[in-house]
Amino acid sequence: MPSIEILSLTCFALLAIGYVLFALLSRVPATTRIIKEAWPILHAETVIVATVATAFWVGGWVLQLCVLALAARVGYEAAAVARERSGAVMPIAFAVILPTFGFAASFLAFGLIGWIILGILLLALAGKPFAKDPSVQASLDLAVFPAAPAILFVAASIHEPAVVWMLIAFILVETFDSYALLGGKLFGRTKAFPGLSPNKTVEGLLIGAVMLMATAAIAGKIVADAPVVTAANVALIVGVLTIIGDLTASRLKRQSGVKDYPRVLPHQGGILDITDAWIVAGAGLAWLSQVVDLT
Fold first, then answer.
1. What is the dihedral angle through the alpha carbons of 250, 52, 17, 205, rounded to the nearest 10 degrees?
2. How many CB atoms lie within 10 A of CB 123?
3. In Å, how far are 18, 160, 228, 275 from 289, measured between CA atoms?
4. Helix%, strand%, coil% for the chain, nearest 5
5. Mean pLDDT of the region 244-250
6. Dist. CA 177–CA 199, nearest whole Å
7. Lowest-confidence region among 121-135, 161-175, 236-250
């Protein structure tokens, strides 16, 4: 298993590779315009990756405070959007609930908390509303997302054995999103989820998935001497969880009739826009690492 320091350095190395790739593609006439439009996105992405990598590198109470602040902001943004659908949801209260419950959950059996949350999510997949009152249903929807994965995410950050897997998940999510975004801009033709996420294309997701698994297999072998098949399988799991996180966050916006969460960074949106996939993938992978042997 690679150390946090090695994984943090990997984050910066992947950023450097991204800049080199963009520089090369910007010199190709067929892709110059697309890359020019994507440069601001890469710069904003650099801020995100550098912040996360540094927080994990420092670790300890700094990392825990950062994750608690992230959960609080995520709770505020989700509740603020849901309030457009129902005035019963209080953003400030929800911003306090997520980090508090996540911190409390960290003192319980981490694996057990994961099973409970998995049960909640499976019930939600039944697809039937639990309440006729829109305000009650809005609150229940928030309990499923982002509350359930965010609570597990906070608990994982304080559960030391799971922290490494959280950072691995972050690297894989960012890699997948970057490949899928670039692949979609260059080759995207077919809308994958026109109702929920019109910018995602089948071609972009396929390119992202293939390149993610290849990158994970190569990097896993170099950084941690991980078996190629194991690294590719972990990458595939994260890829699936990434799509689930993205679509669930998009569904919450569509239900509330808003386009974006309260904005924090240009070209990125709000914190929930930025971390929706990582919260789901990080919580899921961290929990899986405690339930099964991922190495």
1. -20
2. 11
3. 29, 12, 18, 20
4. 80, 5, 20
5. 88
6. 12
7. 121-135
| CA 16 and chain centroid, separation | 21
Kindly state the tokens that stand for 153.
């995410």
What is the identity of the amino acid at 276? D
Within 10 angstroms of residue 47's Cβ, the number of other Cβ atoms is: 12
Radius of gyration of the chain (CA): 19
| Range 106-127 average pLDDT | 64
Give the residue among 60, 286, 68 at the shortest CA–CA distance from 164. Answer: 286
Distance CA 211, CA 206 (A): 8
Close Cβ partners of 51 (under 8 Å, ≥ 6 residues apart): none
Contact 84, 141 (CB under 8 A): no
| Alpha-carbon separation of residue 128 from 132, 165, 260, 278 (angstroms) | 11, 33, 25, 26
- Give the span between the Cα atoms of 236 and 76, in whole angstroms: 31
- For residue 269, give the 3-state DSSP assignment: strand
* Residue 277 pLDDT: 94
Residues 6+ apart with CB under 8 A from 279: 74, 146, 149, 150, 153, 245
pLDDT range class, residue 238, cuts 50, 70, 90 = very high
Tens of pLDDT, residue by residue over 5-27, are 999 998 998 889 889 988 998 88
Q: Which residue has the tokens 């990756």?
A: 49
Q: Give the containing element (helix H, strand E) for 197.
A: strand 197-201
The confidence band for 108, taking pLDDT boundaries of 50, 70 and 90, is: low
